[in-house]
Structure formats: C-alpha cells, structure tokens
Amino acid sequence: MTTPIIDTHVHFWDPSRLTYPWLASVQSLQHAFTPTDYRSEFSSVPIEKMVFVECNVRADQCEQAVAWIESLVPDEPRLAAIVAFADLTVAGERARTGQPDRLLAQPLVASIRHNIQGEARGSRLQVSFVVGVQTIHRLGAPFELCVTHDQLDDVSELSDCAAQAALWSTTAEFARSLTATWSEIQQARFYRDSAINFYRVNP
C-alpha cells in the first residue's frame, strides 16, 4: 500500500508578478517556479497535500503574495495551507497589527514566518521586531523563524524578549525605544512570563 505524503515545505515564486530581493544574487533561480514545475518533478510521488512557505517577497507585497498562491488552488487543489510573511517591523500598533490580522483572516494562512538567514547577529532583537512577534502571538497564530545555526543564540534571546514586549507596548517610553535593542531596554528591569512559538507546520 502506498503511503500518502504531506509536503510541509513548498516554495513557488514568479518574478514577473512579485519582487524577491534575494533573487538578484541567484541568477539560476530568476524564473518562475509554479505548480506545473512541481507536478513535472514529482508526478510519481503520492503527495496528498502541500503547505506553501513564504519566499522572502518584498515586504510591501506580503498580501499580494498570499493572494497569488490562493489563485493557484483551482489548478493545484493539494495546496492546503500557507505560511505567510508579514512585515513585523512597521511602526505603529494599527499598522503592525493590521497586516498580519488581514493575512491570518485568509482561510489558507496557518502561520506567519520570518527568514533572517544571512542577517547580522542581533539585527532582529530591535524592539520593533520583538513587539511584532508578540503581536502574532496575541493574534493567536504560530510564529516561525527561519535561521542558521549561528543565529540560535539570537533565537533564544528573542524568545525571552518577546515575552516582555506587550508590557513595553503600553508604556510611554516604548515610542522612544524603537531603535534600541532589547538587551539595552532590559536594564529597566521589567519582567513578564510568556512564550513564543517556533514550530513546523503540520496540518
């Protein structure tokens, strides 16, 4: 008996529709990869469902990227879930919450992910990003962070920092602290217990 497979990490992209900044340095990948290509490569594999994982689209095109993937479902009905990208560093509570809230309202969007591979250590310990992560938690969705092994210390610190971000978002000092790292702000000795979810989608 053949065992059905759920492919939990599929990427599709189309540079003619959306902008993927990282493709500029990878010439061999500067063309569309779509469900047609997927079916061609895996026609003999019993894949029952698949989960699309965001492809580092330009930050202002997050919602367009989700809409494009949703438009592929009639042609590829095995697309069962989307791990979307949202810009967590945008300033202002309304803007920061609005985009992930709209994304998570889409029926296929299961979680929000950020890919920080190649970024300098500490670059995602800025308060604006920490509060963005806490926003996803507050909206009731899982958060996925894609990192390399040398960034695991940052992941650990981010996990601790995100637990306290909601507290700071209610203080007057918060607006003046967006350019400081959480390590610096932590000296204020505000502490709060919470958790951040790092997970792998498995619908």
Characterize this entry briefly.
This protein has 203 residues and is an alpha/beta fold.
Describe the overall structure.
The protein is of the alpha/beta class and 203 residues long. It has helices at residues 35-41, 62-71, 93-104, 127-138, 152-168, 182-185; strands at residues 5-10, 47-53, 79-85, 109-115, 143-146. Mean pLDDT is 77; it is low at 165-203. Helix 4 (127-138) packs across helix 5 (152-168). The protein has one domain: Alpha-Beta Barrel (TIM Barrel), CATH 3.20.20.
Number of strands: 5
Biggest sheet record: 5 strands, parallel
The CATH superfamily label reads Metal-dependent hydrolases
Give unreliable regions as ranges: 165-203
Q: What best-fitting shape do the alpha-carbon axes yield?
A: globular
The helix count comes to 6
**How widely separated are the two ends?**
22 Å
CATH T-level fold name: TIM Barrel
Number of domains: 1
- CATH class category name: Alpha Beta
Strand order of the main beta sheet, please?
Answer: 1-2-3-4-5
What string, H for helix and E for strand, traces the elements in order?
EHEHEHEHEHH
Q: How large is the radius of gyration? A: 18 Å
Mind telling me which CATH architecture this is?
A: Alpha-Beta Barrel
Helix content: 25-40%
| Mean residue pLDDT | 77
List the helices and strands and how they pair.
Layout: E1 5-10, H1 35-41, E2 47-53, H2 62-71, E3 79-85, H3 93-104, E4 109-115, H4 127-138, E5 143-146, H5 152-168, H6 182-185
Helix pairs in contact: 4-5
Keywords, separated by commas or semicolons:
203 residues; alpha/beta; TIM Barrel; 5 strands; 31% helix; 15% strand; globular
